[in-house]
Structures are given as C-alpha cells and as structure tokens.
Amino acid sequence: MVAFYRHDIPGWMDGTEALGHLEYRAYHVICQLIHLNDGPISFNERGIAGRCNMRLDHFRRALAALVQGGKVRIADGVVFNERCVRGAPGERP
User: Considering the entire predicted model, what is its pTM?
Assistant: First the structure.
C-alpha cells in the first residue's frame, strides 16, 4: 500500500473538467483505490459504488462513461488506469 503519491494538480484538473459530478466522484475514488492497491483493483461494482457513496445504477452509468472516455479500463475482472501505475515514466518514486 502506498502512503504517498505525486499528484499532478493541473493535469488532474485539465483531465477531469469535462466530467459530470458522478463521473468525477467515481474516477477520483477509483484512482485512489488503485494507488492504495499499488495496481489494478478488483471489479467489485457494489464495493466501489459503496466507496463512492453512490447507488449502483448511478455508479454503473458513471463507470460506463469513464470507460467510454478512456479514463479507466476493465479487463479480466480488474479496473485500472495507466497513469495510476506506481513509478510511471517521468515520476519520481
């Protein structure tokens, strides 16, 4: 579990300004969980929706928009985001 990670505030703001409030909340929570897990997280809709404090139908719509927008990917039972990978190029550990 990572205790600290670098956060590119201008990059985050630029990359999330077009998201609606539900998409933004889901994206934020998913990225936080990926950082805490040091990698992809299990695709547990109810668990993630609960962390987002969202109804399941709202979470599913938000997640679908994030996938369609290329913000997150779902494959082999996990949710991931390439930029959340610890030690990404250009990042200091």
Answer: 0.88
For each of the domains in the chain, give its residue range(s) and CATH number, in order of start.
9-84 (1.10.10.10)
Task: Note the pLDDT tens digit of each residue in 46-90.
Answer: 999 999 999 999 999 999 999 999 999 999 999 999 888 654 444
pLDDT digits (tens, 9 = 90+) for 26-35: 999 999 999 9
Which residues share a beta bridge with 73?
A: 80
Tell me how far apart the alpha carbons of residues 86 and 67 are, in angstroms, rounded to a whole number: 21
Closest by Cα among 22, 40, 19 to 85: 40
Burial class (CB in 10 A: 0-12, 13-18, 19+), 52: buried
**CA angle, corner 3, sides to 2 and 5, nearest 5?**
75
25 contacts 66 by C-beta, under 8 angstroms: no
Q: Is the dihedral of CA 31, 34, 39, 45 positive or negative?
A: negative
